[in-house]
Amino acid sequence: MSASWRPTAHRPMLERRAALLARIRAFFAARGVLEVDTAFLVNHPVSDVHIHSARVHCEDAPARFVHTSPEYAMKRLLADGSGDIFQICHVVRAAERSRLHNSEFTLLEWYRIGFSLGDLMAEVEALVRDLDARVASGVTERVTYAQAFRRELALDPFAASTPELTQAAERHGFAPSGRLDVSRDDLLDFLMAARIGPGLGRHGLTFIHGYPSSQAALARRDPQDARAAERFELYREGVELANGYHELASAEEQRERFAADQDERRRRGLQLHPVDEHLLAALAAGLPDCAGVALGFDRLLMLATGSGHIDDVIPFPTERA
Predict the structure, then answer these.
(1) What are 243's strand-pairing partners?
(2) Hey, which residues does 292 pair with through a beta bridge?
(3) I need a surface site. Which of 92, 124, 139, 184 has the fewest CB within 10 A?
(4) What is the pTM of this model?
(5) Contact 312, 13 (CB under 8 A)
(6) CA dist., res. 117 & res. 108, Å (int)
(7) Over the Cα atoms of the chain, what is R_g?
(8) 131 in Cβ contact with 304 (< 8 Å)
(9) 3-state SS, residue 44
(10) pLDDT per residue as tens digits for the range 259-294
């Protein structure tokens, strides 16, 4: 008889999950941050070319999508005056499966009004330290994106030419698979994922901030350096744990970024979808000055328990769901 009905995470791990989730809620309750719960099925997928949304066909209704993040909905709440908010939810990202990836996973996302990017990094560190002191042990460092590239590759990611980036990527195993349209950001992403990221956070928490403005996503550009965005990622033991922004509040600039995403999706032969006008209307109505971050709960639990695979910390991964 097949054992595929059995969960991959058993009672002790389920207890650890429950305990960490309770501590997260207690952490935010003590800070006056409101827990919210937004829709799982949405009308508009994200436009990011690196994130693939799962489509759901509903009988006698237009197609819907499972959200890849509650970000758009939470920003609508912020624009309506919700104040500081957090959410713990399942999200789905298609075409993601590996030691660190399951298509469906648990995301913790929160927004703090009036916080700078530095304030938010400090709060992320405080949360991780509160949840598991071992994960936050060692020396916490904040390193700019440019510093990380110079330290690991002796390259300036803002000034290096595309041929220089290509040569560096090829030295570390980059193979374009016949693509002739590889962009600078493709090369930078490869170098971060293959060479720089795996070495980050070996002696404590490492925050990488000041990503290229071309990778700003929904973050503001740095007013002190137009080449950079007010965005950070958190690494521990080579694992990316969190992605945070000083949030872009301009509806006009966000619309331009959505249009650029659509152009890039068209160039790559990816499916196009209408942009989320609800989000743009919320931004036009007025998003308060805020910073927000998404943290992968399952990955944090992996680090806290010394697990080597995401399947060890979730009861039913994709193949057994």
Answers:
(1) 233, 294
(2) 111, 245
(3) 139
(4) 0.95
(5) yes
(6) 17
(7) 20
(8) yes
(9) coil
(10) 999 999 998 888 899 999 999 999 999 999 999 999
